[in-house]
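Predict structure. Chain length: 199.
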Amino acid sequence: MENMRLYVPLYEYIENQNDKLLRFIQTIKEQYKIKVIPYLPNVTKGAYDSYIVINFDKIISICRDTGISIGNLGWISEFQKSGVQVYGDYGLNIYNREAVSWCRDIKMIDYISSHEVYNDRAARAQEIDCDFVGAVPLMISEHFFSNKEFLDRKNKRFIFIKNSFENKSIIVQKMSNVENSIREKIVKKRCKKLRIYIE
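Prediction complete.
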């Protein structure tokens, strides 16, 4: 696939706090022609916003080379005014033509449509801009959970992942047969981009 991108959490990327992630980035950059893009989570309220404000100049100096993927409205103009290219993440809920037009008007480099688009019957019948496989995020919660996973009423398994500052929980669907899903999406060629979420 052309134009491959690897989206990595901004905090871990800037602060080099995750050795496993850094090794993975280095390996994948050596094997593939891939662009690494830091991303802001969809909810930054609290510790994450404070981190961005305190370290803004440092973040800008690094992200001028990479761009940044943003899933909430609050930080888009600040990064753009500082000369950083912005990619729109799924949290912006880009669902219809008007939202797409807005992305173009504010000169986003690229964007990912809302996850809900791909559950729409009309969307499934035609080519779509991006599809998803793996541990797709369901929601972000302000709460902590003592258990690590749960089953919903349809018997789907979900897991809880703590964010960078361990003050919020990201709820994602448990991955299963990801490789098969990737092959199926690529063979069908029904999407221009494929986004793979890993736990």
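Summary: The radius of gyration is 17 Å.
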